Amino acid sequence: SQTIHQWPATLVQPVGSPLSLECTVEGTSNPNLYWYRQAAGRGLQLLFYSVGIGQISSEVPQNLSASRPQDRQFILSSKKLLLSDSGFYLCAWMSESYEQYFGPGTRLTVT
Amino acid sequence: AQTVTQSQPEMSVQEAETVTLSCTYDTSENNYYLFWYKQPPSRQMILVIRQEAYKQQNATENRFSVNFQKAAKSFSLKISDSQLGDTAMYFCAFYSNYQLIWGAGTKLIIKP
């Protein structure tokens, strides 16, 4: 069966510091992968998605970037965090029947 | 632009009651896929139910069922015999061009 991992679960970082969030999927090959951000009590904002290694589509121009160095690994990064980068970050993969399955999320607080 | 609208920001019902959450969408596609997701206080996103637009029969998963009206572009979720564990944010979404297009969500509170 497929499993999706995200880490860390919680992160507190100062303004101006770098960021690296990692997501890995097990049990499937060449999945479409997604990064979302969610403010408290709000909906999902798609940040990036990837349909293959090295292929990244950006949905929102901002302070963040994404990379997919391996088939089942998706990384969200920033060189210098802003206060507005605080939020709940979710990684997901899409099945062949177009369902998305989500990791447990990372709660990021920028101070 | 393709959009999903959930017109009920928040709802509350008594335990064991039936509740219906509304969702409308706008798309020019003829074949597509619709989903309802649940996000409890743990914030884990959980797939509740899936509907294929070319299927006329409404999808059902235990206490969860949908009322899919393709012509009206409506996709409501009915929860029967609601339980305290159903308290969550509920999101409606449809698949288009490698992505899921999401509604803003409905906060559902089940009262004991």
Keywords:
heterodimer; A: 111 residues; mainly beta; seven-stranded mixed sheet; 11 strands; 0% helix; globular; B: six-stranded mixed sheet; 12 strands
* Rg over CA atoms of chain A: 13 Å
Calculate the terminal CA-CA distance of chain A, rounded to whole Å: 38 Å
Helix/strand order of chain A = EEEEEEEEEEE
Q: Low-confidence runs of chain B (pLDDT<50, min 5 residues)? A: none
Q: Which sheet architecture does the biggest sheet of chain B show? A: 6 strands, mixed
Approximate helicity band of chain B: under 10%
CATH superfamily assignment of chain A?
Immunoglobulins
Oligomer: heterodimer
CATH H-level superfamily of chain B: Immunoglobulins
| CATH class annotation of chain A | Mainly Beta
Question: How would you characterize this protein structure?
Answer:
- The complex is a heterodimer of chains A (111) and B (112).
- With 111 residues, chain A is mainly beta.
- Chain A has one domain (3-110): Immunoglobulin-like (Sandwich), CATH 2.60.40.
- Chain A has no helices and eleven strands.
- Chain A has strands spanning 3-7, 10-13, 19-26, 32-38, 44-52, 55-58, 65-70, 73-78, 87-94, 100-102, 106-110.
- In chain A, the strands form two sheets. In chain A, strands 2, 4, 5, 6, 9, 10 and 11 form a seven-stranded mixed beta sheet that branches.
- The N and C termini of chain A lie far apart (38 Å).
- The mean pLDDT of chain A is 94.
- Chain B has no helices and twelve strands.
- In chain B, 0% of the residues lie in helices and 54% in strands.
- In chain B, β7 (60-61) and β8 form a beta hairpin.
- Chain B has 112 residues and is an all-beta fold.
- Chain B has one domain: Immunoglobulin-like (Sandwich), CATH 2.60.40.10.
- In chain B, the strands form three sheets. In chain B, strands 2, 5, 6, 10, 11 and 12 form a six-stranded mixed beta sheet that branches. A four-stranded antiparallel beta sheet of chain B has the order 3-9-8-7, with no helix packed on it. Chain B has a two-stranded antiparallel sheet with strand order 1-4.
